[in-house]
From TrEMBL:
InterPro entries: CAP_dom, CAP_sf. The keyword Signal applies. It comes from Pedobacter punctiformis. Keywords: Signal. The keyword Chaperone does not apply. Residues 105-213 form the SCP domain. Residues 1-19 form the signal peptide. This is CAP domain-containing protein. PANTHER family: SCP DOMAIN-CONTAINING PROTEIN. Pfam families: CAP.
Amino acid sequence: MSRFAILLVFVILSNYTFAQDWTDAEIKKANTAEKANYLSTEEKNIILYMNLIRLDGEKFYYTFLQDYIDTYNANVRKYRNYNELKITKNNSYYTSLLKNLKGVKNLSLFYPDAKLTAASRSHAMDLSRNNIDTHESSNGDNFSKRLSRYFPNKLMTENIDFGYSKSLDIVCHLLLDCGVPSLGHRYNILDQKYKFNIVGVNIQPHPSFNYCTVIDFVAQPTFYAGNQ
């Protein structure tokens, strides 16, 4: 990565209080989507943040996640049901996340893939166009059928986020997984069992939720640096 590229990433991350706790080397390593010109800056940073989690989960918990929670709580303070909406330190999803992130260190990273991103974009646009909020396409195809057209006979999964357009918000919302007892989104990001190593990411406007983001994960049988 060039000195300019490293500087550009830090300009993006320095909007957050705790960016200084991460080293140049960590940011450089996590920024696997740097050259993926088919991704927007926010889409690239979704991959960056997911990789930072995998590099050092506990540090992410005490840095970027805390910044997200502080900002979220400040934003929902204006609502009458603020006490129900706010994320407190005794929130069960918040406390269970720390348990999940302890020991998460130097896991394999996610790499962007152009073909998989095309699949993510197709579904995100379908969600937007038809005002739906499901892993099933408007024609009834589930995500495995959709992705198998691109990656037959591969392990795969999918995260979908609604309501956010900024990368840190999207990643932290999925990582906390509040209201999702299975914690499926969280476990996809922290995957070690299925060896997911390539991702497709797309953010689209959505008529009911303002925005939707589709993140698809596929496991290649051998190391794969992504189709960048």
